[in-house]
Write a structure and sequence with these properties.
This protein is of the alpha/beta class. The protein has a single domain (26-63, 107-262), classed as 3-Layer(bba) Sandwich (FAD/NAD(P)-binding domain), CATH 3.50.50.60. The chain contains nine helices and eleven strands. The chain has helices at 6-23, 36-47, 82-86, 104-118, 147-152, 175-183, 204-214, 227-232, 243-262, and strands at residues 26-32, 52-56, 74-78, 92-94, 99-103, 121-124, 126-133, 139-146, 159-168, 217-219, 222-224. The strands form two sheets. Strands 1, 2, 6, 7, 8, 9, 10 and 11 form an eight-stranded mixed β-sheet that branches. The longest helix has 20 residues, at 243-262. The radius of gyration is 18 Å and the shape is globular.
Length: 263
């Protein structure tokens, strides 16, 4: 075995990270949040040749999927979303009319691997704390910092990346959309709202049906996806059924391509 020096290991890690980070300074699409909708949107876009970065403050992807329902590591998906999981090799068990059960750990792992294989750069431990704006207050990028810095409450200046479109896939808090409304005077969303009302109590059927219609460009350059969309439009939560999340991510990707193509 060749001699290995500690500084050599450090140099390899720093150099590799720096190369990838420089390549992500100007993105087509920046996705905040590596849950199911964010990962699906990023995968679709990368397969179409767009440069995509996903920024996740935690050290893991998948959002709330790992724990399945109440720490039973199983999730449910509907027939409409089945092809999206079939294409990445997730094993689905038919249980009832139009419903399937999947292992949550397998689903997260295979979807994340498919995103990386498509060319998506997933940055764990990196939080989106703000957005970059340009003329007419259009969202034009993201402001990022280490998730650990954010959690520690340290005053450390962030860095910024450009993006033609930003997707808010931060889940229930809809953090990016809230930040836009908080920091841009007089900002309103596409529905005329000047605040995010948050999600309503659980109603799985209605919550799932609401996700795709609620996936919209809510502010110039900003699209919501997944539970962030239902929070913005006061849709119900739905629990451990995730087909709507994947369908929402697909729709977010389609909207992003429309915006970029029309710009």
């Amino acid at each position: 075995m060749a001699q290995i020096k500690e500084t050599q290991i450090t140099r390899l890690i720093v150099d590799s990270f720096a190369e990838d980070f420089r390549d992500s300074l100007e993105l087509d699409v920046a996705v905040a949040g590596a849950g199911p909708s964010g990962i699906r949107a990023a995968t679709v876009l990368a397969r179409e040749g767009y440069t995509v970065g996903v920024f996740e403050r935690d050290l893991h992807v998948g959002g709330g999927m790992w724990g399945g329902g109440m720490l039973f590591p199983r999730i449910v998906v509907q027939e409409d979303a089945k092809p999206m999981l079939d294409e990445v090799g997730v094993n689905l068990s038919a249980r009832g009319e139009g419903l399937y059960v999947a292992d949550s750990v397998e689903t997260v792992s295979k979807c994340a691997a498919a995103a990386i294989d498509a060319g998506v750069k997933i940055w764990v431990g990196v939080a989106v704390e703000d957005v970059v704006i340009r003329e007419d207050d259009r969202v034009a990028g993201v402001v990022i910092n280490w998730g650990a810095v954010e959690m520690a409450g340290l005053h450390v200046d962030p860095l910024a990346l450009e993006a033609k479109v930003v997707i808010d896939a931060t889940g229930h808090p809809s953090e990016i959309t809230r930040r836009v409304l908080e920091k841009i005077p007089g900002a309103t969303l596409c529905n005329g709202a000047d605040r995010v009302p948050g999600e309503r109590p659980m109603w799985a059927e209605v919550g799932e049906a609401s996700l795709v219609p609620n996936t919209q460009e809510v502010y110039p350059g900003l699209i919501t996806s997944g539970m962030a969309s239902n929070a913005v439009f006061a849709g119900p939560r739905m629990g451990a059924i995730f087909g709507g999340m994947y369908l929402s991510g697909q729709r977010a990707a389609e909207l992003a391509m429309e915006i970029i193509g029309g710009s």
